[in-house]
Backbone:
């Protein structure tokens, strides 16, 4: 498998979902596409394939308990690509949650677009900016819907 091609495919395939969140967040097809389970499930299948199909043995120092162990583990292109898919699935999930939460709490979409851009590019920073925006607008800052 060509991991560079798969990396390009995954990155390109996720962009229409983000464009819908940016420009047509409340369109019925955005709701059916982004807020449905099929995008994370398709990417999750790629993720599972990458995780479970490796024929390469992990380096001896690979482990999840040290920074050097994780760096060693992610030096393998297949492991790194799986990690990248992990990130983009969760970033999209957070972006979709931001759109839903902003609609529920009546925050104007234009105000959250910068948060979505940061979520796409720097996941946790985008979520942090949204939560700060929401707090600044005196909205509830709970992550749990009531």
Residues:
């Amino acid at each position: 498998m060509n991991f560079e091609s798969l990396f390009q495919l995954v990155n390109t395939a996720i962009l229409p979902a983000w464009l819908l969140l940016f420009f047509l967040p409340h369109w019925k097809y955005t709701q059916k596409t982004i807020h449905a389970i099929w995008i994370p499930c398709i990417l999750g299948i790629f993720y599972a394939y990458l995780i479970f199909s490796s024929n390469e043995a992990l380096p001896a120092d690979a482990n999840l308990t040290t920074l050097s162990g994780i760096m060693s583990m992610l030096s393998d292109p297949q492991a790194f690509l799986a990690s990248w898919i992990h990130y983009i699935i969760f970033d999209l999930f957070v972006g979709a949650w931001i759109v839903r939460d902003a609609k529920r709490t009546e925050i104007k979409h234009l105000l959250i677009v910068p948060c979505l851009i940061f979520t796409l590019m720097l996941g946790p920073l985008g979520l942090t900016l949204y939560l700060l925006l929401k707090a600044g607008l005196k909205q509830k800052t709970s992550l749990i819907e009531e």
Summary: Residues 3-136 form one domain. The two ends are 45 Å apart (CA to CA). The chain is about 75% helix and 0% strand. The chain has a mean pLDDT of 88.
